Amino acid sequence: MTNEMPKKNPSQEVERTHTTPSFVPNVDIYEKENELVVLVDMPGVLEKNVNIHFEKGVLNITGQIEPKVLEGHRLLYAEYKEGNYQRSFSVPEEIDVEKIEASVKNGVVNIVLPKSPKPQARKIPVKIS
Amino acid sequence: MTKGFRSWKDFPWRDMNRVLGEMNELFGDYSPFQYAFPGIAQTQEFPLVSMWSNEEHVVLSAELPGINPDELTINVLEDTVFIQGERKNPIAEEEEKKVMYHRQERPSGKFKRGFQLPFKVETDKVAAKYENGILIITLPRSEKEKPKQIKVSVS
Asked: What domains can you pick out in chain B, each with its CATH number?
């Protein structure tokens, strides 16, 4: 989970073009005893427009905004620009992919990735005949 | 989080952009002065804001994902608006030892920012809403300051 997906290999994946700019959102990733938690800042994104996709060990998170137009207004000053969000992470093997859960609240995507129980080391008794 | 005070009307944006444009021409494609997006002010402040206006009011929007709106304070004094609050760390202090951070990019902590508007605000009529992590404040222009049309009387 710590490593971002390596630069895309053009032969494997084709970058999409967008009509709106795309941003890399800020994330927090922390590990608890039984799970990994990913928090993604996506201000302005509605729950229905968040897409979380898992394929070949890569978790891909995208968020589409619905651009707001203030009619009859003039932009005075801007520090941010509206755009979509996209980020990918490689997920370690011990994650139970089937049980990944996600929710969205106040523009923050919260993804919980539970760890699958580690296979217990088993001691095999040797019978002495 | 640092305090910020910004008066957009005093800042020579046009001159700044012209200088940057000249720098870019000098350095070509490798210019360190290249703006990622033209017209977007680069700042490390939190939250990031944008402002729009018409004859009646200024609309200020701030990117504030993951805030409890009850803990947000908005103060308006004459022509100045202050936004103040706290974005809490997702992990409570007593739990911090139990977790391991792999990444921590989301800013957290107390913040306060102030913005000066080009007019005095009708403080009673200020409206604010918080939706999907974006705060939108509508600041109406004070009635006293609205431009008045004066008829020329012919004697």
From this structure: 3-142 (2.60.40.790)
| Record: contact B132-A27, CB cut-off 8 A | no
pLDDT value, residue A87: 94
| pLDDT at residue A21 tops 80 | no
Hey, is B133 helix, strand or coil?
Answer: coil
- The answer to whether B39 contacts A78, with C-beta atoms less than 8 Å apart, is yes
Q: Number of CB pairs < 8 Å for A and B?
A: 116
Instruction: Say which residues have a Cβ less than 8 Å from residue A25's Cβ, sequence separation at least 6.
Output: A40, A41, A42, A61, A63, A85, A86, A87
**Looking at the partner chain, which of A42, A80, A106 has a beta carbon nearest the beta carbon of B50?**
A80
Helix (H, G, I), strand (E, B) or coil at B51: strand
- CATH classification code of A25-67+80-114: 2.60.40.790
Contact A76 B43 (CB under 8 A): no
pTM over 0.95: no
